[in-house]
Design goal:
UbiG_MeTrfase, Rossmann fold, 9 strands, EC 2.1.1.222, about 240 residues, 8 helices, alpha/beta
């Protein structure tokens, strides 16, 4: 069963965002659904994390794990994975898929801030992917992630830059032209510049080691990593 240890009024979360993803939760593992982009970028994210942190034998926390796509794949790389989220329906989907796949992941319904009070400095690796742009206070999420990781451990964040190009590609292009994502998935005002994310990381005691862009070619339908961080990007930090 999914452990439930916190109630909605205490959360650093937008109820509308939670409801939006809860309504789609049953489609999380459908690779042709609204979550298709997550399935397609997951190998990139997984390899990036593994190359920088070495997942085998590590204790890993996946913050905002949703239906468990990244959590399961990190477990298959040999990590001891805990996935946390505030979407109860998504976690139930993750739990059911875990039973079908046989992959060992612990799922908990708890905020990262509360878990940081419970298990400070207990994880070798912390991941927080495609989540920061959906919460009211991303700096608090980053601070909690920093508190959860061991000294010398790795923390990874991915999100969307805030500039006209990002609005064109991530909102107008992805949601209205290509229909890669449901309309309303992203709020441009909540996008985060790399300088902002890096500053919050420093405030939490993290050092930025790498900043990498994640890009998509409409014609080839291929995703890849490079140095262009103008739209989607991943940040690798250490404590």
């Amino acid at each position: 069963m999914v452990q439930k240890t916190q109630t909605i009024p205490e959360l650093n979360a937008d109820p509308a965002e939670l409801e939006k993803f809860s309504a789609l939760a049953h489609r999380w593992w459908d690779k042709n659904s609204e979550f298709k982009p997550l399935h397609e970028i997951n190998p990139l994210r997984l390899d990036y994390i593994d190359q920088h942190a070495g997942l085998a034998g590590k204790r890993v926390l996946d913050v905002g794990c949703g239906g468990g796509i990244l959590s399961e794949s990190m477990s298959l790389r040999g990590a001891d994975v805990t996935g946390i989220d505030l979407g109860e329906k998504a976690l139930k989907v993750a739990q059911l898929h875990k039973l079908e796949s046989g992959v060992q992941v612990e799922y908990r319904l708890i905020s990262v801030e509360q878990l940081a009070e419970e298990l400070p400095g207990q994880f070798d690796v912390v991941t927080c992917m495609e989540m920061l742009e959906h919460v009211p206070d991303p700096a608090a999420i980053i601070a909690a992630c920093a508190k959860l990781v061991k000294p010398g451990g790795h923390v990874f964040f991915s999100t969307i830059n805030r500039n006209p190009k990002a609005y064109l590609y991530a909102v107008l292009g992805a949601e209205y032209v290509l229909n890669l994502l449901p309309r309303g998935t992203h709020d441009y005002a909540k996008f985060i510049k790399p300088s902002e994310l890096s500053a919050w990381a420093r405030q939490g005691g993290l050092t930025t080691r790498a900043l990498t862009g994640m890009r998509y070619n409409v014609l080839s339908k291929r995703y890849w990593l490079d140095q262009d961080v103008s739209v989607n990007y991943i940040v690798h930090t250490t404590r």
